[in-house]
Prior knowledge:
By secondary structure, the protein is mainly α. It is built from seven helices and no strands. It starts with 7 loop residues before the first helix and ends with a helix.
Amino acid sequence: MPSIYQLKPAFQGLLRPLVNALARAGVTANQVTVLAVVLCAAVGAALALVDDPRILLLLPVALFLRMAFNAIDGMLAREHAQQSKLGAILNELGDVVGDAAMYLPLALRPGFPVAAIVVFVLLGVVVEMTGVIGVQIGASRRYDGFGKSDRAFVVGAIGLVYGFGWAPLAWLGWPLWIAVALGALAIVTRARRALLEVRTKGDAA
């Protein structure tokens, strides 16, 4: 299925002048990666501590900034000779830690569907792990299907809708469970395509 991830090249093109300026200023990819996690943790803390539903409006803003940070750190690494093994670790861990830090506190808010939120976060970890396992078995890092950017879109939309009070909380579980189903499909898709890629490489050898 199509993914928001496919828009990444165009988004990177818009960010390239900023990335070049950051590189000249001495900003590193790893610093940006860590900053993205700190942003997620700060927003998660606000969601847990502030009762006002308007605090949910932080979600679309923070998720857009995080998407920008994720694009920037990758471009700094690839285009400005900053790739490192530490950076690869931080990049993968930062994604799942950031998701958990920002999304799990929603389960602490009155009336929010705890089970749906917890399963949504845990399944997201498995989706990303499946993508990384592709590298372990000799394929590329897989990004097929409903991934990080799509989960962020769902949570950002939830923050917008419920921050403005446009829908009753009783409806909140539906988009989360649909996202869970799409995430489960992404796990299967990433695993199958990683195995197919490995077989194709073997046949070509």
